[in-house]
Every structure is written in structure tokens, then in C-alpha cells.
Amino acid sequence: MAQEESSVEQPSRRPGSILIGADLGSNFIRVGAVDPSGRLLDFRREPYAVDPLSPGSGRVLADQLLKGINAMIEAHASDGSAAAIGVGVPGLVHQTTQRIVSVPHVPSLADIDLYTEFSGRFELPVHFENNANAAAYAEMRVGAALGETDFLYLHIGAGIGAGLVLDGKLRRGKSGFAGEIGHINIDPEGLECPCGSVGCLETMVSAPNIVRRTRLRLRRDSTSSLSSLGARGGFVYDDIIDAAQKGDDLAKMMLDRTGHFIGRALAGVVNLLNLSMVVVGGATGARAFLVPAIADETRRRAFTAAFEDCRIVAARLEAEAGVIGAALLAAPR
């Protein structure tokens, strides 16, 4: 696997103390070694070996993930044996059966019993978790939410998900499906969502929909630097973030509007739960634009006393968040 920039620290070298974490993104598999305190000892990523939506790609992805985890275990054999394996996935995981129910933006894994397969292959405790929950747990243990007991973690990427912590505990709901903030309705006249409803938050603020909205805007405003990218074949979410960082007014406006859409949904959550913090994760470069816009719209729409109790901040961890959280959640209790 290729190395990716991350806050890797030197191994603690305590026998039996290594935890292995993996995180499936929309384009990459990330795998890391973590010590029980949450220190990242090693971190690697590699792109999917096949088109993630092609037939049979689920099995290919499962094999690639298994191989990556095995390589990480072998790489740290001299640091002590692995104690557990945690895997974060961008979808629903049934917490009782540990079966993946759905993964909308990567190959279908719902027909593969990865929990049984990985447990048998590695003969270690294995835990599967929604990756927003995993990142929330990492932020609580070693990130921006350290010391917080009531907070929400937001992940903005190929979809938009959330991890909820109340009374210091990760809350998953009855079967593990809590946190689907992307399917809160913000526009009854909006686009139809793949979930079957109309006007979901995700139809406006997921990375593909930010790109879609930006393309529509460019039909009226061709002065943006993104116009030349569009003429050469198109652009992606990262290009919008890069343009915003370079001062492109349209790109900044699109991220600002994205934050305001999120604030519409978040205000009700803040009112309902009286949170102390909302942590905004996802693409690192977008956080500086999204956080103030989210805070502004949430302030406008939320109950004043509830909003004043709640800080809205950028996540501290980057691409390693899901890996760290998945590893720590898998640790034997």
C-alpha cells in the first residue's frame, strides 16, 4: 500500500498491544496499526483494485481488504501480536449480527458475511462499524471532542453521515442504524433521493451533489476557474475545495451554501439533543469554509439557549480518523 500523510507516531512496542483498523472510503481502502491509547503507529492506503460498482467487485474488495489487514499485521509482528481488528464501512452495519446491511457508494458487501470470514481467517476479535461512528469515537478519544460527553460528528463525503455520542457513549440505535442525518428532509420540493424520499439533505450536500450544483451554477457564471476544468472534461469535489482555497469566489460560495444546507438539518438536532459540540469532518480543506457557514445557519434556526450551549468546530483528525476509531472500538473490553 502507498503511504498517505498522517500523524503517525513511533510504535509503543508493547507485546500484544497492537490494534488493526481499516476504513473503506469511496475510492480507497485505508489500514493502520494503533496502540490502545489511540496513537497511530502506521497508516497506509490503496485505491480499489477494480471499478467499485462493477459486477463482482464486492468479492474483489473483500479480498483486497483481507490482504491489506494481513499485511499490516505482518508488518508489525515485531511490535507485538495484534489484539483485535476493527473495520469501518460507509453504510449500515447491524450491530447484533455484525452483517453489513448496505454500502451505497462502494461495492455491495451485503451478501458476504465478512464478520465470520475475517474472524475465522485471523482468529482475533473483529468488529464492524459505520465509519462515521468510528470517526466520532476517534475524535472523542484523541481528537477535537476529547472530554466531551454529548456531541455529534458529521462526515461530509460521497454521502453525509453522523456519529452520535450521548453521556459519553456512542449511540447506534436499536440495530445500529442511527446517524443517518443525510436523509433528514430539508426541501419537500427537492430531488428524489436513492433512499426513496424527496429533498433529503444528501441530495444537496454529498460530494457528487456539490459538484452537480456547481456545474449548474457555472451555466450562469463562467468567470470561475472551474469553468476551464469543466471545458477539459469536468471537475470533482476536491477541485472545488482547491479553487476555494485559492480565492475563487464561486467555489467559496458553493461551499458556503453547502454549509447553510447542513445547518438547516442540524438546527433541529441541536434543539432535540442539547449537544455540547458538533464536530465537522470529511475533506480537510473544506472545513474552514463549511464550519462557519454551518454555525451561522444553525444559529439562525436553532433555539437560542440550545445553540449557545453548542460549539461547532472542525475535526482534528484527518484521513486516519476512521482507522483509529475502528481499531479502538474493536479492542477487547
Structure characterization notes:
Helices cover 38% and strands 21% of the residues. It is built from eleven helices and 13 strands. With 333 residues, the chain is of the alpha/beta class.
Topology readout:
Elements: E1 2-3, E2 18-24, E3 28-34, E4 40-47, H1 57-75, E5 82-89, E6 92-94, E7 99-102, H2 114-122, E8 126-130, H3 131-142, E9 151-156, E10 160-166, E11 169-171, H4 202-205, H5 207-218, H6 226-231, H7 237-245, H8 249-273, E12 277-282, H9 287-301, H10 304-309, E13 311-314, H11 321-330
Parallel strand pairs: 2-5, 5-8, 9-12, 12-13
Antiparallel strand pairs: 1-4, 2-3, 3-4, 6-7, 9-10, 10-11
Q: What is the 3D shape?
A: globular
SSE pattern, N- to C-terminal: EEEEHEEEHEHEEEHHHHHEHHEH
* Strands, count: 13
Radius of gyration: 20 Å
The helix content is 25-40%
Total separate domains: 2
How large a portion of the residues is in β-strands, by DSSP E?
A: 15-25%
- The CATH topology assignment of the largest domain is Nucleotidyltransferase, domain 5
| Oligomeric assembly | single chain
Low-confidence stretches: 2-8
Distance between the termini: 30 Å
Please report the number of helical segments.
11
Text of the CATH class of the largest domain: Alpha Beta
Overall pLDDT level = 89
By CATH, the architecture of the largest domain is named 2-Layer Sandwich
User: Strand pairing plus helix content: what structural class?
Assistant: alpha/beta
Order of strands across the biggest sheet? 1-4-3-2-5-8
For the report, how would you describe the main beta sheet? Answer: 6 strands, mixed
CATH superfamily of the largest domain: ATPase, nucleotide binding domain
